[in-house]
Amino acid sequence: MRRFIALLFTMTLVCQLDVSEYWTTDPVTSTPFFRDIMARDRFYLLLTFFHLNNNENNIPRGQDGHDPLFKLGTLYHNILHRFQSYYYPGQNLTIDECMVPWRGNLSFKTYNPDKPSKYGLKAYMLCDSKNGFCSKFKLYTGKPLIPHSSNGATYDLTMDLLRGHFGKGHILYCDNYYSSPQLFSDLWELGVGATGTVRPNRKGVPDELKNLKLRAKGETAVVNKGPLNLTKYLDHKPVYMLSTVSTSENIDTNRKDPRTSGENIIRPRVVIEYNSKMGGVDRSDQMISYCKIPIKTLKWWKKVIFHMFSMAALNSYLIYKSTTTERSSLLFRNYRRKLIKQLIEKSNDVGLHEAKKSAGRPSGKQLERLTGRHFAEKIIPTGTKLTLTRRCIVCTPAERELLASAGEKRRRPGRDTSFNCAECNVALCIDPCFKLYHKYKEYNLAYKRQKLAAGAVRNVNENNTEE
């Protein structure tokens, strides 16, 4: 299963990597390197295992029991389970929305003017406030068939995302879309602290605080009710903060305000903590945007799956940074390149020789050809031909490149051969192509160097003969 995930993940990310060294140049097998590292039967098994569109549950939207995410199959839930099982977040958690860009026709497409990608599929994320690791990801699919509780839809959503983190000392940071006095009180009873901005029209916010007028910038007003601490702070406009773990005492931020002749900026503690620990989801979105998988598709569920692959790459990078013992860790872009190359190399350890050999395209391993045992054999003819020849995989593309660099054109560069490698199932000349193919990783380059060296020796001999 891990190898299947590695190969599927590699296929999604390889578009950002220069794969010229893995590309075959034989006209018959001029296809990407996947064909050389995985048997065709195993590839079909991979597609079956990660079957995205569950046709058995293909019920029109709106009927009872229909899951709008049925097109994502089990892969969507499997990836989310991996997020939660391999890394446990720190004390501070963040809940916020992210957008999967999409402008097609879809019933649950949303518009959010506050996001860089304003049109798309909205998803709710639970992230670590410190590094942006995404623990939970829930896609918005429209109004649910099951009615929400009396506390509201956002209350149920928050409780659902925090399930599994109760009673462990976590502190939640969220904006005014989620926060409410009822939610924070219930979270306090469940062993989870919370801090966030709150809308003044929320049920439970006292009227005397809403009607209180603050005169000077930086002025605060505080109301305490049990574990709840409600603060009204005047910045450019009134800001309402709600917390069960932070106080409203003023703290010097050690920063100068240029509008007040360089005076120090003083803010309540709850505002400072909120500003410093609320950006977990935004940090995750920012890192993903640097290395998005460039895919153009008319299928919305493909956009979601590829976005989750990007999140999986980022999550693995954050785990690497938190566990590495190196003096200086890799940058994210360098980590992705190294990850893709390692996945490609490890996929060659799969026992491809155990898979059934099927007629058609070869399924030999690209890198094992340098270490395994290989033997030349005659190409077995099919049909009425007594002898069968094929174009050599080494000298044909190499001769074509040599002729192109010299400005010459020939209809059929290279040579035909009646021999092939029994293990690799590719056509090869006995001398020197068979040796070059199994000795050098860049066998075409080795052939061209040998050809040029032989030509230089021939020219020297001819000059000596003429003298």
From TrEMBL:
<keyword id="KW-0732">Signal</keyword>
<feature type="signal peptide">
    <location>
        <begin position="1"/>
        <end position="16"/>
    </location>
</feature>
<dbReference type="InterPro" id="IPR029526">
    <property type="entry name" value="PGBD"/>
</dbReference>
<feature type="domain" description="PiggyBac transposable element-derived protein">
    <location>
        <begin position="1"/>
        <end position="317"/>
    </location>
</feature>
<dbReference type="Pfam" id="PF13843">
    <property type="entry name" value="DDE_Tnp_1_7"/>
</dbReference>
<protein>
    <recommendedName>
        <fullName>PiggyBac transposable element-derived protein domain-containing protein</fullName>
    </recommendedName>
</protein>
